[in-house]
Amino acid sequence: MNDLLLWRLLDSPDEQPERLAELLEEASVGSIQDRFPYLGRLSGVLESNNPELRALGVRFFGGAQGYLAYRKIVSALDDEDPEVRRSAVAALWTTVSRHDHQRWLHALFHRRRDVRTAALEKGTVPGTGPMHLYLAADPELGRRALDRLRSIDLNDRHVAVVLDLVETARLSAGEARHLLSAIRASRWEELIASLTGMETSFRHTLVRVLRLFLVGEASVLDEDSREDCREFFRQLARVALSKEDGISSALGRVVETAV
Asked: What is the Cα–Cα distance from 69 to 24, expressed in whole angstroms?
């Protein structure tokens, strides 16, 4: 690669745009260490009227860390050109796949549908998988998000969200049972252990969970899995019923009906 020519053309991107595009594309396949000296000189490219140059410029930041890199990538997610936006998603993916995983949410929950779509198509960044649950309420992409969730482990913190999705008709009862039944036994046991000290509002959520699992119809679970789930919720019910209040009474009525 002609390093000196690339260095010079970055100062005047419109002088030889086709040649600059070739050099940027060639350099972008190298390591971030090799690209690092040029990162501070890409402002002209990112502000160019040429969308091809802007796309190549933002892709150049893939794998880079720090405020400057993230500011450039995230800003490009809102570029007027769709190819630039796709390049920004790709650059962000390259970076957050290695570190700063939570920054993937910039793309996953972006206001533009095509950016959210591109983020879903990229896959799951470590530590952000359960966040797809919140996209289930997206009227356009909810189904794709749910398909992604089927291979992701949720935990007890997501119970209320799943129930709200059911009650707002974004999720069927069968789908909700499928998602909640995947929560590991150890997480339910932690919930059981801490339930006695929980507020009434959370225990009210448990009434809804019990009703969904123990009374709901058309479960997608096989009989063995369903019985495992029932046992965990029986335990939850026993602990919840140890308190004398309206919520305990509601739990009691659900359990008496279904168990």
From this structure: 16
DSSP per position, 11-24: T-TTTSHHHHHHHH
pTM: 0.75
Per-residue model confidence as pLDDT tens digits over 30-82: 888 889 889 989 999 999 999 999 999 999 999 898 888 999 999 999 999 99
Residues 254/211, Cβ–Cβ less than 8 Å? yes
Place of tokens 């920004």: 88
> What is the crossing angle of helices 200-210 and 246-258, to 10°?
10
- Give the start-to-end residue ranges of the domains of the chain: 1-126, 153-259
Q: In the numeric block, which tokens belong to residue 118?
A: 């591109």
Contacting residues for 244 by C-beta, under 8 A, at least 6 apart:
none
Dump pLDDT digits (tens) for 221-230: 445 555 555 6
Whether 55 contacts 87, CB under 8 Å: yes
Superfamily holding 1-126: Leucine-rich Repeat Variant (1.25.10.10)
